[in-house]
Amino acid sequence: MALATASVLLRACNLKKHSVMEVAAALVRSGQRRPNEPLAQVYIEIERGSAGELDDDNLQGGTKLLIDVLEKPSRTNPHGLGLIENDNNQCVVKRRVTQAPAKRGQGYTRVLIAEVLE
Known about the structure:
Blueprint: H1 2-29, E1 42-50, H2 56-61, H3 64-70, E2 92-101, E3 108-115
Parallel strand pairs: 1-2
Antiparallel strand pairs: 1-3
Helix pairs in contact: 1-3
């Protein structure tokens, strides 16, 4: 049982590392740069383009790894990119996750991060 648990954790860790590389590469392709300091308060909008549609709880839950990748690195999240301070409600003051149709094989994820200025 411990081996199976370790295997699941290892797959999750590898998925997170892969997600970090994907998000970092997309950031470079878009011409955007990381902020000098992680953003303290943000609005995040995520659009998932796919040939299939998820129910709402899976749509929302499916963004967890992506949001984790956006956070600053920490002991529990060593692969964070440092775009946002944290994923709590004080930092992510509003989050919107939507779906859009896309042709099979042409799925995408679009992320908008907007700093909230007081």
